[in-house]
Structures are given as structure tokens and as C-alpha cells.
Amino acid sequence: MAFLLKKHKVQTIRSELFQYLKQIFLILFLIFVTGTIFYLKTVQWVTQEKQQLFLLNDFYSNLNEEHRLLYQYVLQKNSLSYQSLKNHTDLLDRDICDLYRFHIQTAFQREIEDLSGILENYYLKIEEIRIAVLEKEETSSLNQKFYESNELYIRMQGTYQNLYQMLLQYQQSQEEIFQRNLIFFFAILCLDLFCCILYIFFCLKNIEFRIVKPIQDLTSTVKHMDLDQLELIDVSGSFHASNEEIKILLSGFDTMVKRLKLQVEERIEYISAQLKLKEQELTISKIRAQLKHSQLKNLQMQINPHFLFNTLNMISQSAYMENDFTTLKLLKTTASLLRYTLDYSNKAVTLEHEIEMLGNYITLQEERFGNRIQFKFYLDECFHQVLIPNLILQPLVENSIMHGVGMYLEGGKIFIQTIYDPDHHQGIIRIADNGEGISPEKLETVIERMKSSTEATGKIGLSNVYLRLQLFFNQKAKIEIASIPKEQTSISIIIPVEENVLCIKS
Amino acid sequence: MFSDKMKYLKLILCFLTALLFLSSFIVFGDMSSDFSSDTYEKRFTLIAPLQWVPVGQGILDADAVFHTNTKLIGSDTLDPDQQAEEINAAVLSGVDGIITSGTSTSENLCEAIQNASDHGIPVVLIDSDLPNSSRNVYIGSNNYQMGVLSAQSMIQETKKDLFVGIIISDLENPNQKQRILGFLDEISQYDTIQVVEILECHSNQLEILEKVPKLLTEFSQINALYLAEAFTSVVVGDIIKDRYSSLDLTIVATDDTDTIRQHILDGTYLSSTAQSPYDEGYLSVQTLYQMTGNQPVDEYIYTDIFSITQENLNHFPQLSYEEQLWHFY
Description:
The complex is a heterodimer.
Chain A: H1 2-5, H2 13-76, H3 79-100, H4 106-134, H5 139-223, H6 235-238, H7 244-321, H8 325-343, E1 348-350, H9 351-369, E2 373-378, E3 387-389, H10 394-405, E4 412-421, E5 426-433, H11 440-452, H12 462-472, E6 478-484, E7 488-496
Parallel strand pairs in A: 2-4
Antiparallel strand pairs in A: 1-3, 4-5, 5-7, 6-7
Chain B: H1 2-29, E1 42-49, H2 53-66, E2 68-75, H3 80-92, E3 97-100, H4 107-118, E4 123-126, E5 137-141, H5 143-157, E6 162-168, H6 174-187, E7 193-200, H7 205-218, E8 224-227, H8 230-243, E9 250-254, H9 258-265, E10 271-275, H10 277-292, E11 300-303, E12 305-308, E13 326-328
Parallel strand pairs in B: 1-2, 1-3, 2-13, 3-4, 4-5, 5-11, 6-7, 6-8, 8-9, 9-10
Antiparallel strand pairs in B: 10-12
Helix pairs in contact in B: 2-10, 3-4, 5-6, 7-8
């Protein structure tokens, strides 16, 4: 019974099935043993009851025989009949001894003892008769003694009847108790068997619930498994599994799915990285092609600027000779601008240098536009030592003049502003004008064209600036264009600034 | 879900299986006989009226204490010849002692007692004595003192002159004789009380029903009754309640039964002088046990007597009796 109630910690399928089988077998075995004990005891009890009745009847018949033999002895008075009588006495003694062993009731026992006492007196009377026979007493005396023995015999008969009645009553009461107990026993037996069947049913249900169903669910999951929906699979969380082996199986399946999912993700990432890399390589190759094209163009242009340089010097000497100092100034500015272009072509310059060169360009434009356009500088020089590609500001100012304020007869303004953003370690170079502005649709087209145009167009325009910046700052530079039509347009170049180039002046 | 149900089911199953297993033994254990494994040392026989259940209870208790066995043989009628025959049968059975009552001075009864004595079987008489028989010991109440106590109870409780009618079963009965003697001796000291008539009813209900009204009619001055015997005490109360409730009768009864207690409670009886039959039963076994063990015993052993009244009724709780096996004769 303790085995049934014991808790089993390790729950393998085999041990679980074996455990159920053992429990059911043990209970059925106990029921079988109980039934067998009950049957054997019933048989023993019935046999004992029969034996008791037989023994009592046996005693009675022996008693009658004893008295008959005594009567025969009194009549015959010979030793042979006495011997028969004496031999029979032993049977009576044996019966009394057997009756003593009945042990059914104290009153019954007492009755047997009384019977035994009377029997002792009866034997004494037989002895008296024997002596009377031996001494050849008168018949009347012998008859008197036989009469007295007869009284004892009658009393023993009475006691026998008492005993018989007591035994029957006892057996009857025992049978009543037995019937009652039998009903009780069978009621419990039926209840026990019913519970046993119920338990077997629950065992089967449990096996189905704990072992069969998880496996069925797992099979179904495997059947309908989709690589795109691997993240939805969680068998150990979704399926109930109390069995250790099933738990291991489900958790193993989950681990396998997770690994698979991871591998798929890694593969996808790898492929997308490859694609991105190819795209970047393509972009770089395009930029390089454009750069080569620019370099070629620069080389071509280097021939003309030298000629132009010589020409400008000749003109400036002529202007000097004629005291035309304005033309002289313009020519010097143009020459310096041209020299900057030639000297620093495809080279990195400091922002300070670039702005200085821009100043030359603006001097030329001021001469050109007079008061129609005002140029204003707002500079944060702390990051002006940062290196940038040359000639990235001049095209932007040129754009502002050409597309912004160039058509104004007066009131045109162009702002050149540099700002350092310490939070993001960025430098912002903004060229703004109060020109015609750009409509949102056009602005979107311009930005798109700027970013997508990777081919060398031969123009040193916005796309060229953008591409050079991207190439120079390794895709870390940005150009932002904002415009309010009829009001203003601003172009901001945002470049990364390392701390080591920062200086205190501003 | 299943495991919880299974846990409870398993517990029930274990319990039922254990119960079933035990029941296979209990079924037969319940049928085991009332045979006591403690074998008794002595066999005694009580021959007495069947009504003597309190005596039987005392005997059963004493049997348990002294490891003896006493066979209870009883009869509805107090026939001395049958009583003698049963004594002789007990002698033939070779019992170790006989307990009976000297209800009659019958010659057969005395001879039977003599026969037992001849066979070396001690005889104890309880309740009623036969001093002239060969009995060894008498155990009972002092009947003379019972008479005295009854008279005292009657005198102390009343202030008026009393004319007493005495009703008994048998004038020859030595116990009743002694009670009347004690009663008469006690009242002789007082001038205010005198006995008018002594009526003999032989413990016969019809005779009582006939004679008692006659007594009260013939001797109209009677205002007190002394019922000197148990059966009469049970019956007379009902007659008085039915027919003579208007009379101011002072009645003193004998013995302690439910009916007599009821008569005391409703005021029909002033009191009842009772003895302790339980003690008689218990002491008789104890005495026989001592005698068979060759220990000295007194020839007369008196049990307590007491007067039950309305006031002290609850001080004498009635005994509860076990089931007793009586053999009829």
C-alpha cells in the first residue's frame, strides 16, 4: 500500500507505464488475496460448524450405545459385555475431550463441564454395578443401581439437548452475522473493483494525456512546420508534458527549431550584407569613375588655366600701366581664385582656407552685382581647421546667386554660416539666401537627383559636391536642403568633426 | 488535472483495498465466540427466581473478579421440589458450590441441601435463610432490622394515630416472619400505633386484588399499611391509586423496583425498605470462592438495608444490568 502512495520522481515513459502496471497489479493481487482468504475462512468456518454438529451427534449416539451396553451388561452379567462397555467408554471420553475444544461460548463450555461431571458419576455408577455383579448382589439391588444410572443417563440426555440447542442457536446467530458481514464484504469488494476500473480508466487517460497527446501534437506540428513561421513554434510551452522524456523531447525539438531559426536569420543577414556590400562597391566604383573623369577634366583644364594665368598677368600689367586699379583688383582676385583651383584641385583643404577662397569669389561677385546682393558671414571658427574637399562652398554660393537672388535688382542676401554642434561632434556649414526658393516638388527632385546621381556629369554642381563629400567623409557627411518658396533657401553641409581639430577661437 | 483526480482516487482505492483486506478478517473476527480465554477455576450454580436480575448482576461481576463461573438457573414459580431437583442435578454435575434461597421450609429442599453437603459441595443461601438446613452460609439482609426500619420510617413521618394493616406473602416464610417481628417490636414502644390485621396473599395477584379491598372495607379504621414483601409492594400501590386515592393512607413498602419507586414518587407510598440484592449475589460468589479455597467465612453475612423516600430517591440510583443467560427449570 505504501508503494502505491510513494511518489516517483523520475518519470520516463517506461517507468510511468511500469508504475501504473505495478499499481494495478498490486491492487488486483491484494483483492485476489483478500478474496482467497475470505473463501478459505468461509470454507473453514462451514467445515467447523459441520464438525461441531457431527461431534455432538457422535457423542449422543455413543452415549446411547454406552447405556445400551450397560443395560446389556446388567442383563448378561458377563465379562465380555463389560469389556464391550469399557471399550465404548473410551469413545465417550474422546468425544468429551473433543467437545472441550469447541470453545464457542463460555456457557457452552460450562455445560460440557457439567456433562463431564455427570458422566463421571455415571462411570462411578457403572463401577458400582460391576462390583454388585461381581459380588452377585440381589437383582433388586442391581436394578436400583441401574435405575440410578438411568437417571444420570436421562440427565445427560437433557444436557445434550441443552448443548445441541445452544450450538444451533450459536450457529444460527453466527450465520446471521456471516450473512450481514458477507453483504458488507461484497459491497466493499464491488466498490473496490469499481474504483479499480475507474483507476485503470484514469491511468489510460493519463497515459493518453501525458504521453500520447504530446507526441501526436508534436507530429502534427512537424507535419505543418513552415520555415517562415518558425518563431511561432513553442512546443514545450504550448503542449502539456508531465513526463520527463516527453519534456526532453519537446524541449529538444524547441532547441532544434531555435537553432534552425537562428541559422535562417544568419543566412538572410549574410545575404543582405552581401547585397549591401555589392551596392556600396558599385557606388564606390561609380564615384571612382566620376573622380577619374574629374581628374581627367582637371588635367585638361590645367592647360587652359596656365594660358589663362599668363593672359591674366598680361592684362593686369596692362591695367596697372593704365592705372585701372579696379580691373587690377578683379584680375588679382580671379587669379588667386584660379590658383586655388589649380593648386588644390582634388586635395583636402581646411575649412578656413576654403572660406578664404570663397571670400575671393564673393569679392568678384560683389563687383559684379554691386548693392543688389549682400554677402554676410557668421562663422564659428572653432572647427575651421577641419579638412574638407576643396571647392565645395563656391558651387553652393554660385547656385544661390544663379537660382536664388541673381535676378533681384536689390535686397538680395546670401548668408554663409558655420556652426559647431558639440553634442553630435558635427560641423554645419550653411549657405542661405532669401531668393525665390524651391517648390517642395522640385526640392524633392533636387534632393533625389543629388543622392542618386553618381555618374560624372562633368558639372561641378550640387551632385558633385555631394559625391565628393560622401567619398571624403566615407558616407558620414550629409547635405540638407530646406526651402520656403518665395522666401528663402538654405543648404547645410553637415560633416563629422574630431575633437583634435577643435580650437578655442570662434 | 488527471494527476489530482488520480491522487484522490488512488487514496480511495488504497483505503478501500485496505478496508477489504481487513474486512476479510473482521468478518470472521466479528463471528468469534464469546468464549473467554481466561479459564475459570470454580464452577458454581445459582438456583433462584428468574426475577433476581440484580442478584445475577452481582454474581456476574464477582465471577469476573474471582475467575469463577456461575450457571444461573431460574424459574417463574418458586416450587421447592423443582428447586431441590436442580440442586441435586448440580450436585451430580460436580459443581464446586451452590447458591440458592431458602424460600421454603420444604423437606425436599432441605434434603437436597443435605445431599450437596454430603458430596462436599458448599451451599450458600441468599435472601431467605433455612437455619435448620445444612447450608453453610446465609447472606441477606437482617429481616428483623428491616421490620424495625419500616416501623421507624412509618412512625417518624406521621404525627397521627396509626392503625396498621400488614400484608405479607406467606406467614410461614421465615424472612417475613422476622420482618413482622421487628416491626411489631418497634411499634410496641409507641401508644399511637397499633396493628389491626395481618393479611396473607401468597404473592398471588388475584388474591391481592380480592383481599386488599376487603381488608380496607372490613377494617375501616386502617390508615396505614405495611407491605412486608416485594411482590405485594408492587401490586398494592396500583390498587390504592385506582380505588382508594381519597383515603389518607400511610404506606411503607419493601424492596426497590421501578414500580415501587414510581409509587413513592407520586406519593402513594411513604417509603420502601430495601435491601441490596446485588450485594447478595456478589457476596455469595465471593464467599463460595473463599470456602472452596478453605478460607474461613462467617455463617451470617448481612447486606445493607435502607429506606427509600421521595427525598433520598436520587441517592439510590438504579443499576443497569448486563445481558444474563438464565437456564429455565
